[in-house]
Design goal:
The protein has about 260 residues and is α/β, with parallel strands linked by helices. The chain has two domains: about 210 residues, 3-Layer(aba) Sandwich (Rossmann fold); about 40 residues, no CATH class. About 50% of the residues lie in helices and about 15% in strands. The chain has a seven-stranded parallel β-sheet with strand order 3-2-1-4-5-6-7, with helices on both faces. Helix 4 runs parallel beside helix 5. The longest helix is centred in the middle third of the chain and has 29 residues.
């Protein structure tokens, strides 16, 4: 299927690794010019190098999305490089492992700044020029925790529910504008960080050393789903690329689970 994305301009936040990296690379393979954003310069350079080595177009910008001045600089650099932004993927976020009695009220506020308010900053900076051009895509990366929260990750689940809520509100506000807003909610995805976490756990549980073996054990005993494996960053990226494309014009205000049927 031809997605008709060639030459579109995109910014993917938190794309120096993990799901964000997978999204950036998938968009670049479709001909999108991508701005890769994160806080680790060396990793940003690596992602850009890997994209350009495969014939894609990519730039990078460092910055902390919880700081207004950094976000302003990110916006200025992006528009300087691209002149316009067609696709904003709000992917950056934190995943603290704190229960109800471990996270202080300040911890909750700090996480909302990272996972929710940072998205608001990006939307408010880039949305006006999307309105001028009469076309745009805003895609929020949430989580299945936003619709099925874990008792051990209360603050994270609350921020992801807020992301889903924001999408619906903004989609309604932008009715008839040519700009669509959607959410992608991944389940367990085999990022490098996730694999490292479960590989360490596998040593304690005597699950073996090979990822396929560990993955099978985890999806049988801890995180079952209908497919029987973890998803990949590339699979999330493929879904985002579809939603970012002109052929998805009739899709807005939606939340797409990509979780192997875990919440079915």
């Amino acid at each position: 299927m031809e997605l008709n994305l060639k030459g579109k301009k995109a910014l993917v936040t938190g794309s120096s690794s993990g799901i964000g990296e997978g999204i950036a690379k998938c968009l670049a393979r479709e001909g999108v010019h991508v701005m890769v954003q994160g806080r680790k310069k060396q990793e940003l350079q690596r992602v850009v190098h890997e994209i350009t080595a495969n014939g894609g177009v990519a730039h990078f910008i460092e910055g902390d999305l919880t700081r207004d001045e950094d976000v302003q600089r990110i916006a200025e650099r992006t528009l300087q490089a691209f002149q316009r932004l067609d696709i904003l993927v709000n992917n950056a976020g934190a995943f603290p492992k704190r229960g109800w009695l471990q996270g202080s009220p300040q911890d909750w506020l700090d996480l909302f700044n990272v996972n929710v308010v940072a998205m608001v900053r990006m939307i408010q900076l880039f949305l006006p020029q999307m309105k001028i051009h009469g076309w745009g895509r805003i895609i929020q990366i949430a989580s299945v925790a936003g619709i099925s929260p874990s008792p051990s990750l209360p603050e994270y689940g609350a921020t992801k529910a807020a992301n889903i809520n924001m999408t619906i509100s903004l989609a309604k506000d932008l009715a008839g504008s040519g700009i669509t807003v959607n959410t992608v909610s991944p389940g367990p995805i085999a990022t490098a960080g996730t694999r490292a976490l479960f590989e360490e756990m596998a040593v304690e549980k005597n699950w073996g050393k090979e990822w396929k073996e560990i993955e099978k054990k985890v999806t049988q005993e801890m995180l079952p789903n209908l497919v029987g494996r973890f998803g990949t960053p590339e699979e999330v990226g493929n879904l985002v690329a579809f939603l970012a494309s002109p052929i998805a014009d009739f899709i807005t205000g939606a939340n797409y689970r990509i979780d192997g049927g875990r919440q079915a």
